Structure formats: C-alpha cells, structure tokens
C-alpha cells in the first residue's frame, strides 16, 4: 500500500503528520509532494526532521503528472485539486481539511467530489451530506490535536527562554483576513506586561508580500521583552495551543481549536475590513463566513474594541471555567470525538477501503 500527501502549503502538515505517523506504525509507505516556493530551505528542514520521502513540483499540473505515474492507493489533499478526473483513473483521493473555522469555504471546498472526505463530527457530516448527497463523508474527529489529547511529545515544542514561569501566557493568533491585527496598538505588549505573550499569526501574514504591513507590525511587537513571535519555521499552531493559558483571536480556526482544549478564548469583533467588504458591500463578508458563525460565537467572550481587551483577559484568567460548559457543549459540533484517535480512524478507513 502506498499513500501520497499533496502538500501545497506548509501549514497543511500539522493535520497530515499524525496520520503519517499512524501509517508508519503499520508499516505503510508514505510520500509527500511539496510545491516549490520561496521557503524551500525551511520546508527541507521539516522534511529532514521527519525523514520524509518526498518530491518537489512546480504546480498542480506537475503534481497530477506524477500521480498518474505513481498510481498510489490514496492521495491526501487539504484543499481542492483541479485534476481529480485524471487522478481518479489511477488513485483514490482523500480530503483532510486543515482547519475547523467559521468560514463558508469549509463547505464549498467539497464542491469537487473526492473519493472520501474526513470530517469532524456528526453535525458537519450531515450538513455536508445534505449539500453533496452523492459524495462520501466520514466522521473521524479532528486529528490535528491528537498529540495533545494523547499527551504525546509535541513536535516543534517551544523553547521560551526569557519567559517568566510566574506569569500566565497569552496567545494572540490572528488570521490574515478579516483580521484584528492592524487595529492593535503599536505598543500593546506594554499594556500586557504582566503576561507572557505568544504571537502566532497566519502563515500568509509572515510569508506573502500582500500582507507586508502585517509583518512590519509583528516585527515591531517582537522587540518587546515579554513577546515571542512565531517564525516562519513555527508552522504548526499546536505547540502554541499547548503552552497558552488563554487565546485572543478573530475569525480564525485557532479560536475553535483552542476552545476544544477547554481553555478560555477572547474573540476580537473589531476587524480591519477592506473597502470592498464595507457598507453596501458588507454582504461579501457575510458570504465569506459560515451560517453558524453566530452560534459559534458563544464559545468565547467578545471584545468589541481593543480597549475592552485587558479587562476581559483579567476576568477570564481569574475564572477560566466560566464558559467551560458552553465550550464543551459546542465541541462535538465543531470537531466530533475528542479522544485522540482521529488519525487512527483515518488510517483504519483507508486500509478497509483500499
């Protein structure tokens, strides 16, 4: 049996690696296809760390040529793929999404039918099945967090030299768009000097020219002594989730992943929107977000403005159990079973349906 992981972006790896490790345990051969970009040296370091069998391609056309040549049993994707018709003549396809956030793209990326899509929970399963009744969806849970639930050693564990053991740790993890990042003051780490601060921006914010204004702010914040700014090589959010006592974020899947650990979350409702998403064009923002956005919002306390943030942080860290019941109640809807066995269920399915 042979498995290939199509890795168009580095940040797909935290979802792939738990499955890869389970495959290794069963003696099943895996291979990774990486797409050439400006961070090849960084990616090569990750490859070397896991000793991944791999090749490099320029684009999806080169990838499909390779898949036709290899004729593997399954090819995993974290997003859509343009050449499924060609692929399905030689291999089965599996979709394993890289996030569980509130964006409508979670559902629309299934518009191209893969052989199977692994999803998180009965609610998402039934909703996808009603949208695409002829497709195959399997509820397995959210394998990205398996290492935490299994109390395993976390890959890429953070070495936080200079951080105080006596201080609680805040994680700020904004998405790239729509984001709260540009509405934080330049000196905001000073306002939270009583805390250690981890900043884990979206990969796009630190890697794409389009978001260079994000990077300038982030680099400035990294000069404060109580801040650790994730580097490009800190591609996985999991070590940050593991270390933090509280999360601050916006319309990001990080909110929900952290809430699954039943730790307090603050949701920033203040977002920097492009003019094309404001006023008469606000329907574009609503279309971008999932219809369950409002219900999911109950998983956190909300900061309508930056000036409200400090008070909420103090309150939530003083009583972290305050929204525990709500977080637990929404966990099943967000991610299904939280037993650390999602990657195991994925591997069992592909073996049984080979």
UniProtKB/TrEMBL annotation:
<dbReference type="InterPro" id="IPR043148">
    <property type="entry name" value="TagF_C"/>
</dbReference>
<dbReference type="Pfam" id="PF04464">
    <property type="entry name" value="Glyphos_transf"/>
</dbReference>
<dbReference type="InterPro" id="IPR007554">
    <property type="entry name" value="Glycerophosphate_synth"/>
</dbReference>
<protein>
    <submittedName>
        <fullName>CDP-glycerol--poly(Glycerophosphate) glycerophosphotransferase</fullName>
    </submittedName>
</protein>
